[in-house]
Amino acid sequence: MRYKNIEKLDVEISELAVGTWAIGGQMWGEVNDQASVAAIREMIDQGVNLIDTAPIYADGHSEVVVGQALKDGYREKVLVATKFGVSYAPDGSVINNNTYENVLAECQQSLERLGTDMIDIYIIHWPDPNTPIAETMRALNDLKAAGKIRFSGVSNFDQAGIEAAQEFGSIDFVQLPFSMVKEDDKSLLIWCEEQGIGTMTYGSLGSGILTGAIRQKPDWSPDDVRLTFYDYYHEPKFSKIMKLLDYLDELAEKYQKPLAQIALNWSTTQHFVSTAITGVRNTEEAKENTNTFDWNLSEDDLANINGVLADLEISDGKSLSAAERKTK
């Protein structure tokens, strides 16, 4: 495993982080809790020292599974990141609530589900237009003072939002989407790195499309999160990604490595990516992902990948509308 040091925070994190959205089971198809616990522990055994979760992932079930994985001495080996502020209404719409009282209440609930007395990185999941950022940051500052959280962060914020939050406290980490098929926030990630903010990127394998396992338009349930949150399976993006996979197949053959490792190798090579969050459901996936760090893409191949990405223009800055998208 490789690690990057967040100098401003005096903390070292693995270049790969455990993502746990899928293990909650909601909108991702059937999952097995026992297999999920084993997968998380395998990632940790292979040197991963950061787990990312959130209470909205299957209404807290993801945090419960993470809490089970943290038993038997595993809690001491990792940093735990979770989030707050979003929930689903009965009609499936997303509710934002970053008020002072709710932040404190959600933190206590997460601590109990995770079975820990401190959250290492507590993240504002999405901006809340109805709550002043000063109020939310006051809650985070009070939680830090009480020893219930160590670092604070934001997810899905733009630069203006991050700067507004920083007026009232420290933003230590940001979490944004980034992969070969989603480079829209690249300039923001670079800016964050320049500010000394740790960067956690999600969607590192493009909801699975960068594993190469899917080569035809899938026939999933309409509420499958891979269709409702991401736009990779919609045209014209899907056809562009298939062309990218054709090129990545050549590299996979050259290096004798799976496509997932090619994609993760490329992402974690980017200097502005502190850690790439990657979901796992079983120990086989965990081993495959962590084996990424046993080798490196050459400088020439990295440049060639960037050239292909530029030609295909997969990242066009567009995304599904808020009405279509389920929250990450």
UniProtKB/TrEMBL annotation:
Keywords, alphabetical: Oxidoreductase
NADP-dependent oxidoreductase domain mapped to chain residues: 15-308
CDD domains associated with the record: AKR_AKR11B1-like
Family matches, as InterPro entries: AKR_Detox_Biosynth (IPR050523), NADP_OxRdtase_dom (IPR023210)
Lineage: Bacteria, Bacillati, Bacillota, Bacilli, Lactobacillales
Gene source species: Enterococcus alishanensis
Protein name: Aldo/keto reductase
